[in-house]
């Protein structure tokens, strides 16, 4: 179980098994391979094993890697996005998982309009209200919903969260439950479906699937341990 393609297949198998355990169709869960800090050679290995969907948490890293790789790959930005980098990153990414404020959503909407794009976005919710993390507070996302729906260039897919890290994956479950319940509440409030939930990482993606994740963001379990830490 040492090659990257073996690890990738093992994750796919675990995703399918977790989905089946809770009566979900395995194809309803996408695997975002989080390639941050890993070189393009590692990404090529994953591509050769059939993976086309990749996540990066830094704009510079996507801009450096994407041009060296096949154009049929799909890139998702999962890390904090500064307003001054929106124009650069939008042409390269299909989706942004880290829309954490109304101001950022407005910037993305305006610039997407200028560039003729309709990016998919997820609203990142900081459920534990951790001051070290970005994202909407729960109350903020409730209050901002109407203004967010008025932005016509962004396609709001749903919600994303990063629970406080704990090696025990069971401790992530209550956050996944809260994200799913918040999604339901917002759907009723806004009358607009929020079909997707971006939640679950290497250590807790199976629990996220049990709680309704439609896309799991898995890095180290595919690519190996990162040699230097990166902010989430
Ligand atoms: C790095 C990162 C991941 C992947 O983490 P792993 O533990 O390596 O699977 C998922 N989501 C975000 C936002 C990240 O920054």
Summarize the structure.
The chain contains nine helices and eight strands.
Describe this structure in words.
Strands 7-6-5-4-3-2-1-8 form an eight-stranded parallel beta sheet. It has a single domain (4-223), classed as TIM Barrel (Alpha-Beta Barrel), CATH 3.20.20. The chain has helices at residues 4-21, 40-48, 59-65, 86-89, 102-115, 138-149, 173-190, 205-210, 220-223; strands at residues 30-34, 53-56, 74-77, 95-99, 120-124, 155-160, 196-198, 215-218. Helices cover 40% and strands 16% of the residues. Helix 6 packs parallel to helix 7. The chain is α/β, with parallel strands linked by helices and 232 residues long. Strand 5, helix 6 (138-149) and strand 6 (155-160) form a beta-alpha-beta unit. Bound molecules: pyridoxal-5'-phosphate. Pyridoxal-5'-phosphate binds next to strand 8 and helix 9.
């Amino acid at each position: 179980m040492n090659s990257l393609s073996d690890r990738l297949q093992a994750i796919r198998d675990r995703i399918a098994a977790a989905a089946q355990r809770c009566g979900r169709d395995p194809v309803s869960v996408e695997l975002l391979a989080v390639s941050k800090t890993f070189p393009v050679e590692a990404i090529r290995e994953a591509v050769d094993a059939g993976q086309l969907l990749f996540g990066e948490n830094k704009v510079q890293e996507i801009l450096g890697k994407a041009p060296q790789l096949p154009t049929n790959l799909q890139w998702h930005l999962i890390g904090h996005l500064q307003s001054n980098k929106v124009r650069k990153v939008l042409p390269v990414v299909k989706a942004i998982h880290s829309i954490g404020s109304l101001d950022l959503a407005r910037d993305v909407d305006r610039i997407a309009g200028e560039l003729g794009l309709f990016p998919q976005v997820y609203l990142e919710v900081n459920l534990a209200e951790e001051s070290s993390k970005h994202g909407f507070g729960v109350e903020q996302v409730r209050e901002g919903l109407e203004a967010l729906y008025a932005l016509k260039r962004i396609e709001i897919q749903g919600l994303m969260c990063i629970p406080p890290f704990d090696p025990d994956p069971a401790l992530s479950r209550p956050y996944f439950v809260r994200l799913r319940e918040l999604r339901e509440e917002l759907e009723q409030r806004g009358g607009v479906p929020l079909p997707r939930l971006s939640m679950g990482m290497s250590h807790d993606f199976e629990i996220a699937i049990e709680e309704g994740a439609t896309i799991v963001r898995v890095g180290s379990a595919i690519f190996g341990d990162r040699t230097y830490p990166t902010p989430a």
